[in-house]
Amino acid sequence: MNSAIETKFMLLMTGINTREQQKAALSLANTLRLRGIMSILALSQGSIFTKMFTEKGYEVVSVQNFPQSKGLLSKIVRAFKMQSCIQEATEILKVKGINAVLSFGGFSAHPFLEAASRINAVKVMLFEGNLAISKCGEDFMKKADRIYFPFEAMQENIDYEFYKKSFVFGIPVDKEVLKAEPVEIQTKKRKLVILTCKKETKDINSTIRELIAKYPEITRDFYIIQETGDREIAAVQRYYETNRIESTCEMFFDNRGSYCKVADIVIARPNSDIISEMIALKKPAIYLPLPKNKDYFQKQNAVFMAKKGMGYIVEDAKSANPGVRIRKLYQFLNSYLKNEENMKRNMAELDFENSAAKLADNIEKFLIDGK
After folding, report:
1. Beta-carbon contacts of residue 35 (< 8 Å; ≥ 6 apart)
2. What is the rounded CA–CA span in Å between residue 28 and residue 39?
3. Tally of CB atoms within 10 A around 229
4. 132 and 188 share a domain?
5. C-alpha distances in angstroms, 266 versus 197, 271, 299, 304, 326?
6. 246-266 tens-digit pLDDT
């Protein structure tokens, strides 16, 4: 941390339960730090993100795990722990001299948002990273001083009372992705980048194999760059080698921006961090959302991207006929060239490259003058 920067305000970030939330939070925290707004991260005990934030020079406070209301037992436990969690959050806010609490939508944010709403000097801010508003966002919109949305479409379905305090700034994108040097790949083929995620990795791997089996000609047109999980990588590499398919296959890319920058088109899950990076890098994508019972937000994200002409959507395997699904995937790969420039123009209208800076400007202004 740069000790030469004067600390003007203390911001507590909470509700960071997923990789997508963590990436947006870190990008924003890094930007705020340059303005003298220092972030403290409130993470659940045992959070996998604790080490990453502390290594980046941020203070992390570990708080009690706060269960979601997914069943009768969890509701009982949740109600029982609510008061102790709020008391713990209140003490942290006062001891740390927090000026504002910013939630990234995770259920773990509830105690801190409730505690902040009871302290006049602490502002309440909500950040929504998906096309569907989180349950946490719905619960605290009335008490929020600021609501940050990624897209204007999200403002259309909220009451005017909430609209007045809502702002659209996109989703903060990791600067390392934006500044990454394109990886060098010697090929005259178009480059197809396949991004998996830790949920249902095998489904995407099997989908790609089905695609190649039914339409082997795509391997003549596309050089495949694929990321996958540590349990699948050996089998995926062996498959490409056995079938003599030009490819690069690695475990989850640490330098995803380097690969995405050379992509002609991407196949991916429509997580909030993926769609934000695709918009920022102006890359067309075919999105394969998980079913709603496995990920509540992916379908809405994918539908929005398709409707706005910034990508395509192929339904999950359980919602569509397998043959039709693979045919649609093949058709989209072949049709994107006719729509590529239009897609890039549509994405260029959304300035996601500067989302973190614009969001930080608004937060700073609000903390200074309260308006």
Report:
1. 8, 360, 364
2. 9
3. 15
4. no
5. 13, 13, 17, 17, 16
6. 999 888 767 889 999 999 999
Question: Do residues 12 and 43 make contact, with C-beta atoms less than 8 angstroms apart?
Answer: no
Give residue-wise pLDDT tens across range 177-211.
999 999 999 999 999 999 987 666 778 888 999 99
pLDDT at 329: 94
Describe the strand order of the beta sheet including 312-313 as a list of residue ranges.
247-251, 222-228, 190-194, 265-268, 285-287, 312-313
State the DSSP string of 187-256: -SSEEEEE---SSSHHHHHHHHHHHHHH-TTHHHHEEEEEEE-TTTHHHHHHHHHHTT--EEEEES-SSH
> Domain containing 305 — which CATH number?
3.40.50.2000
Structure tokens belonging to residue 359: 């969001």
What is the C-alpha to C-alpha distance for residues 101 and 119, in angstroms, rounded to an integer? 11
Interhelix angle 201-214/233-242, rounded to 10 degrees, is 10
Which residue has tokens 């693979």?
A: 326
Angle, CA of 211, 212 and 216, to the nearest 5°:
125
**Do 270 and 203 share a structural domain?**
yes
Q: Which residues make Cβ contacts (< 8 Å) with residue 280, sequence separation at least 6?
A: 173, 177, 178, 352, 353, 355
In a domain, 2, yes or no: no
* H or E segment and range at residue 365: helix 355-369
Q: How many residues are listed for the chain in this entry?
A: 371
Residues 187 and 318 in one domain: yes
Q: Are strands 100-103 and 166-168 parallel, antiparallel or unpaired?
A: unpaired
Range of the domain at 185: 178-348
Residue 347 tokens read as 């994405």
Q: Are strands 285-287 and 166-168 parallel, antiparallel or unpaired?
A: unpaired
C-alpha–C-alpha distance, residues 23 and 123, integer Å: 23
Distance linking the first and last C-alpha atoms of the chain: 29
